[in-house]
Structures are given as structure tokens and as C-alpha cells.
Amino acid sequence: MGNLSTPTRVQKLQAALHAKAKAEPDYRFYALYDKIHRDDILAHAYAQCRANKGAPGVDGQDFAAVEAYGVRRWLGELAFALREETYRPDPIRRVFIPKANGKLRPLGISTLRDRVCMTAAMLVLDPIFEADLPPEQYAYRQGRNAQQAVVKVEETLFPRPSRRRRRRPRRLLRECSTRGVDAFACTAHRGPACAASDQDVAGMLRGRGRWKRSEDAHDGSQG
Fold this sequence. Notes:
Elements: H1 8-23, H2 33-36, H3 39-52, H4 63-69, H5 71-83, E1 93-98, E2 104-109, H6 112-132, H7 146-157, H8 160-165, H9 170-186, H10 199-213, E3 217-222
Parallel strand pairs: 1-3
Antiparallel strand pairs: 1-2
């Protein structure tokens, strides 16, 4: 997400949410939706999306168009739609990316509006989820990735002294690493989700499910 520093007010909110979730594991958060459409949250979410760049979605709107329209005005209208609960996700634009083996990998591209909403929700929900996730979880966590999970599996299966004595069975390592990463990914959406009990947020997340099922608007392009 670039080298953006998180604004102080956003940091304080995230720290408070994380501390509450950590101190009281059974606590349920019923008032989160109003935080997602806070001006500072949406502004930072937009800045993160802007730093990531990316192509436009089905509406064809890119960052240059938003900036020509006025970022403050654009974010204000998005915040209003979220407050009034008139916001609805757009279909995802599907494109196909060439792979090294000659095949094509489908890629879904959300509109900028939806990407900003998803990022804003992540800024609010991530500190709560983080409080409940075990240390061996690597999937969908900031600062962690699948490569780190593979390294951890290797270190666990083959402690350093044994690595010097014999050659590692590469096939076994690859198989265990792949299964391990899959296991980390499969547990990413379980457990902590129940902590966020705000029904408006739950409705927004169900909308995210509709985004994933709406990948029927595509241009068939490659790259």
C-alpha cells in the first residue's frame, strides 16, 4: 500500500479497537458502521487505493477522473451514500492475464468506489480480527504473506541442525508447504468474524459477497 503513514486519528481508533478486542475476547462490536464512513477513514482508504494504482472497473472511472471531479467532493458523496445506506456495490470487471505456461488467469477489477469502501472496512475491522488470530496464521494479514508461511513450514519440518546433516526432501517440503498455506487461507474467514456484530457492517460484507458473484461484466481483455 505504498509508504503512506496512517493518520494519527485513524491510528488511535485502530489501537482502541484492537485493545478492546484483545482484553475482552468475548466482546461483540455493535457500532462499527459509522466508523467506516468517517471522513478520515475514507480519505486514508482513498490514499491507499491511489498508492496501489490499478485499472478502472466497469464504470471506466480512474483516479485522474476522480481528481478532476474533486476528491473531497467524491468522498463526500460516497460517505453520504454509506450513511443513508443507499450504497450498492458494482459488478466486477473481469480481465484475463497471461500466465507463464501460456494459460490465462482471470482477474476481477472492482470500481474505485468499491475499492475505497473495501479498504475503509478493512481499516476498521482489521484491528479486531488481528486480536483473535493465532501466530501461525499468515493468510490475509498485513505484513504477512504465503512465502513467509512456506519458510515457517520449512523451519518447523527441518530444524537448522538437521539441514546441515542431510539434503531436504524437496517434494515433501513443497507438498507440506502448499497444504500449510492452504490451511492458513481456509481459516482466515472463521472465528473472529463473529466479533463484528454490527448488522450494517454485516450487510456491507454480504454486499462484498455479491461483488464476487457479479463477475459477469467483463471485456475479455488480456492484461
